[in-house]
Amino acid sequence: MQNSLAKEALKQFRIIFGTVRQHFREIEASCGISGSQLWLLHEIATHPELGVSRLAENLAIHQSTCSLLVEKLVKKNLVEKQRLSEDQRKVGLIVTAEGYSVLAKAPKPVDGILPQVLATLDIDTLQNLNLSLNLVIGKLDAQSNTLGAHPLSDL
């Protein structure tokens, strides 16, 4: 019984990972950027002039990871850095016309299938899911805990 339940759970993980990977492939094929870059581009478009630290917080990723993603978007001319109007010492980010063009042709949801689905679950379900996943993670190699600060598309 336990072995068949473990196999069923494994199949469910495969469905989740496979669906997420397929969505990321569609993003790269249609937009020419990674899923994490698209999500970041969407966040910048939704919240103009946000800094890197707030963006990292919004995406639940490490700030250095977010900085690298921002630099890739700047090099592709999808995002520009600019001084904020209310505080010239701070740099904000804005989406360029090319960036909006990429967003327009991006497959939905632009912030990713998994974050979108998780946002629709009720609190009790999310709490139970988090408890169960923490049990699974606790049985894995402890070094894998650092992976939680990286976007799925970059793993």
Automatic annotation (TrEMBL):
Coiled-coil residues are none
Which InterPro entries does the record cross-reference, listed alphabetically?
HTH_MarR-typ, WH-like_DNA-bd_sf, WH_DNA-bd_sf
Q: Which Pfam families match?
A: MarR (PF01047)
Signal peptide, first to last residue: none
Alphabetically sorted, this entry's keywords are: DNA-binding, Transcription, Transcription regulation
Q: Name one GO molecular function term.
A: DNA binding
Keyword check for Glycoprotein: no
Is Transcription regulation a UniProt keyword of this protein?
Answer: yes
Residue ranges occupied by any HTH marR-type domain in the UniProt entry: 2-138
Q: What domain of life does the UniProt record list for this protein's source?
A: Bacteria
**What name does UniProt use for this protein?**
MarR family transcriptional regulator
Gene source species:
Methylophilus medardicus
